[in-house]
Amino acid sequence: MRTPKVILLALAVAAGALALPGTASAAYSDPLTTTTKQNLVWHATPAAALTALDGALPNVSLNTVVNDTSYDMTGCTAAEKASLPKAPVATKAMCWDADRAGTTTWSPQGITTSGDADNDGKWGDDKIILSGWHGTDALGRYNDARIQAINYNDPAKPS
């Protein structure tokens, strides 16, 4: 199935655009070329569309996003805790709030951390977890994607 690869590529480009200062066009400075094995094809975004996007959305760093206090991770319910692996035993767990955990319109697709980006495990001053999601057919739109950015500076209270 090609859709997850395309979504992961879109998430990677979006994450790069969020993390880089300046215009969104900075994320497009090294374009992907056509690959036969993965069946991916680069479709350049017109400069006017990138300029319009820059004008419509604030340009902030990923650090700004994860330090915004408008969303906190919730604790796991008893049912979620019961579904954790028994062997090896899970020593840490994060659970989404009821709206995200129970959704039928969004499906989690991937996870990465700032440890994949830098040797010290941080992006700037922050430990960050990124979770990529894609919209399902129940959403009623095609190829929607979103990223959940989690501040993991305090493992006892991710936010």
From TrEMBL:
Residues 1-26 form the signal peptide. This is Secreted protein. It comes from the Bacteria. Keywords: Signal.
